[in-house]
């Protein structure tokens, strides 16, 4: 994370390490999990597929967002045909919509989904998004199902 890595990445000349450069890695990690865009909240958009191999989990806890603090946990049960997200939604200023991306480790398509155990029809298998048209006011379980 040095500025002006010359002549190769890993070499440095001039400015050495700066806080602003070092902070970028933290910001990029946050963007893998959480991104605000206008009145909408995008979650899990850039989580690497291999992080969701069967039996794996990944999470972000107490993330500060424009909408308020929130937490998100992904748990993979890929061999059983599902990936689960547990969302503790932001409550201060609820987003209009929440988009959750479920990136199956084998690039399989979502066939159906549930929200708190009830069928949910607003999902896009090609883009891997499950859309919550209204921000929940309590901890919510979202499950993407695969064949």
What does this structure look like?
- With about 150 residues, the chain is mostly beta strands.
- It has one domain: Immunoglobulin-like (Sandwich), CATH 2.60.40.
- Helices cover about 10% and strands about 35% of the residues.
- It has one helix at about 20-35; strands spanning about 35, 40-45, 55-65, 70-75, 80-90, 95-100, 110-115, 120, 125, 130, 140-145.
- A hairpin with a 4-residue loop joins β4 (about 70-75) and β5.
- The N and C termini lie far apart (about 40 Å).
- About 20% of the residues are buried.
- The model has no long low-confidence stretch (mean pLDDT about 90).
What are its keywords?
147 residues; mainly beta; Immunoglobulin-like; six-stranded antiparallel beta sheet; five-stranded mixed beta sheet; 1 helix; 10% helix; globular
Rg over C-alpha atoms, rounded to the nearest angstrom: 18 Å
Mean pLDDT: 91
Task: Supply the CATH architecture.
Answer: Sandwich
Helix vs. strand class = mainly beta
Task: Characterize the main sheet.
Answer: 6 strands, antiparallel
CATH class, named: Mainly Beta
Question: Beta-strand percentage?
Answer: 35-45%
Number of domains as seen in the coordinates: 1
Instruction: Label the overall shape.
Output: globular
